[in-house]
User: Which sequence fits this backbone?
């Protein structure tokens, strides 16, 4: 029983990080109707900016601000300089361009920083607090939960309580009609990419201290798990992304704990396959459709 409790809290901790990254995928989907396969590479690029600032100043928080600012700028740059010129009539074109962007970003990071793993600082201890002799959550885990909750509340307020959130959704669903109504569709797309990239950068800053460290390919497997979480919850649903992230985190923890870590990639792919076959719109698809 103690092992089950430990694996449950460990899974919730991992799931919270996956939920943060899944929220970035959901945000770009709601803003531009695109699955950004370059999200992981862009997040790593922002994390390298944080690494440089932290190394120069000794402050984790300045590094975090640099990551968020770098994510905003990189997202806006990618939309303005790359994705805006893609033929959006073909979904395959967007996927191919995004995968090409992954190769360019990772190669550039490798040339500048090298391909060795680098340790990433964390502002809080990763030593798990014990309750009844069972290690549960660390202070870093609590920091992750708080950050994910703030992002979720922020997205909820943005898309349901603000005019700019409504314009972003209108620009994504009906760009031609939105232009006729005076909405700056191009500006809304740029804003969506910038915000999604910033959320992805935050997710990278939360997950990298718990993984092997900083590396140009550090977010590759995280992207696969987070994409699965977004699909499970529904790509158009921020609450679904959180539920999906926590669910995937729990599955990964149980599979790793009882069957071995080598089986976890297969478990993620099996879950993704089952969801796509049984409910391709995700668990929250019906609610999202009514809201749209």
Assistant:
């Amino acid at each position: 029983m103690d092992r089950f409790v430990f694996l449950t809290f460990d899974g919730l901790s991992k799931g919270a990080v996956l939920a943060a990254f899944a929220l970035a995928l959901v945000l770009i989907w709601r803003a531009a109707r695109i699955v950004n396969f370059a999200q992981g590479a862009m997040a790593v690029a922002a994390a390298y900016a944080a690494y440089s600032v932290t190394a120069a100043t000794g402050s984790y928080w300045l590094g975090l601000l640099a990551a968020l600012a770098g994510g905003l700028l990189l997202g806006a740059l990618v939309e303005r300089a790359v994705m805006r010129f893609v033929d959006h009539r073909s979904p395959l074109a967007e996927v191919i361009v995004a995968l090409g962007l992954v190769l360019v970003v990772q190669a550039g990071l490798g040339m500048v920083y090298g391909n060795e793993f680098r340790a990433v600082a964390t502002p809080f201890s990763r030593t798990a607090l014990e309750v009844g002799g069972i290690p549960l959550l660390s202070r870093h885990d609590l920091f992750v939960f708080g950050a994910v909750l703030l992002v979720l509340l922020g997205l909820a307020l943005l898309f349901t309580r603000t005019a700019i959130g409504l314009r972003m959704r209108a620009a994504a669903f009906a760009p031609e009609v939105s232009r006729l109504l005076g909405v700056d569709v191009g500006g809304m797309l740029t804003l969506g990419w910038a915000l999604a990239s910033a959320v992805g950068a935050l997710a990278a800053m939360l997950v990298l201290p718990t993984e092997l460290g900083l590396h140009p390919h550090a977010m590759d497997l995280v992207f696969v798990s987070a994409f699965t979480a977004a699909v499970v919850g529904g790509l158009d649903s921020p609450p679904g992304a959180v539920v999906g992230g926590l669910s995937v985190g729990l599955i990964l923890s149980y599979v790793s704990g009882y069957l071995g870590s080598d089986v976890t990639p297969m478990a993620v792919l099996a879950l993704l396959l089952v969801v796509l076959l049984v409910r391709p719109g995700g668990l929250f698809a019906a609610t999202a459709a009514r809201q749209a």
In short: Residues 288-292 have pLDDT under 50 and may be disordered. The CA atoms of residues 6 and 103 lie 38 Å apart.
